Amino acid sequence: MHPHFKVPYYTYVLGGLLSRADVDGLRFRKLGVPEIDGIALEFDGRRVFVSSNDHPDINPAMVDWADSYGKVNLAPDTEPFPGLVPLGPIFGIRLWPKPTAYRIAVRMAMAGAPLLTTLRQVRFQAITKLPMAVYTPSPASDSGYVFFRARRWPPKHEEANEPRYRFLEAMQGVDVEFEGGLATDRITLMDYLERTRRSALVFNCPAVHRCLGWKLGEFLALGKAIVSTPISRRLPAPLRHGEHMHMVEDTFEAIREGVETVLGDDAYRRRLEVGARRWYEQHLAPDVLTDRLLAGEWPTTADW
After folding, report:
1. Given 33, 71, 130, 143, which residue has the most CB atoms within 10 angstroms?
2. What is the model's pLDDT at position 63?
3. Residue 302: per-residue pLDDT
């Protein structure tokens, strides 16, 4: 693997790949590629490049280098090319506990990565993130409780905050216990996940640059009833309204109506929960993503 990459953004993909290999077999070298925004690696004789950055841009040099080119935030009108794989909304997980993480960081530094930056990144994933095994659905959500918590994006990304403001406004006066808002303090990730599991619904909207936020991947893994504004990035398969999530336009009125619809129909909410988790298992789970990535498979689904 090329030693220069932003560790917390790629632990999900690496987790799937390393489930097929011994961690002690992981080696770092430059692989003859330039400095890149992503990860480049060789696996079973196949060259793999993955980009999870917020922009839909394609790196021409890595198109030439890679047998498989995995991309999280593809524009909907992207023309497919051999090996291109739309990955979907991956998120950060704890891949290595601290002792293993530090050993990996030393290997990366010996291959040319900046030591202090790499140590900070592997420590971040070891301390602040949780293993993939914790992302499981709750047996039952609470129809009388809604939880929402998110960081406020800085002023240069104010457009990413605006749907959240509309959701918070829409929740005012809804007859449920509502907890959360735009966070000014910190809670543990486990506490956040437990409250999210309990919540009757969750709200999704694009993050900065209209990208797929980590929360969407987490919501799907947790099997939540998702109220979502339109998704503007290509996915490995469609997320269908009424089956996998409840889609609404990005207006106060539409968000309020969507919230009331999901809260007012227990059977419908349960269908969305089951559908979300099923979509995750079929299209986003690490083993499924790894299979698609190594095969370089463009989706064959016709009804985009």
Report:
1. 71
2. 94
3. 43
pTM for the full model? Answer: 0.95
Q: Are residues 47 and 168 in the same domain?
A: no
Q: Element (H or E) spanning 300, and its range?
A: none
CA pseudo-torsion sign 209, 211, 213, 219? positive
Q: Is residue 297 part of a domain?
A: no
238, amino acid identity: P
In sequence order, which ranges of 93-172 are alpha helices (DSSP H)? Answer: 98-110, 115-128, 158-171
Length of the chain: 304
* Ramachandran region, residue 223 (left: φ > 0; alpha: ψ -120 to 50; beta: rest): left
Closest CA to 88 of 302, 299, 248, 250: 299
CA-to-CA distance for 96 and 48, rounded, in angstroms? Answer: 21
Q: Which of 246, 220, 248, 32 is nearest to 41 (CA)?
A: 32
Dihedral of CA 4/8/12/15: which sign? positive
Regions of the chain with pLDDT less than 70: 22-24, 300-304
Q: Are residues 122 and 197 in the same domain?
A: no
Residue 123 structure tokens: 């420590």
User: Is 138 a domain residue?
Assistant: no
Question: Per the domain annotation, does 299 fall within a domain?
Answer: no
Sheet holding 246-247, edge to edge: 202-204, 226-228, 246-247
The amino acid at 208: V
10: Cα within 13 Å, side-chain hemisphere: 25
The residue range of the domain holding 264 is 145-283
Instruction: Write down the pLDDT at residue 301.
Output: 57
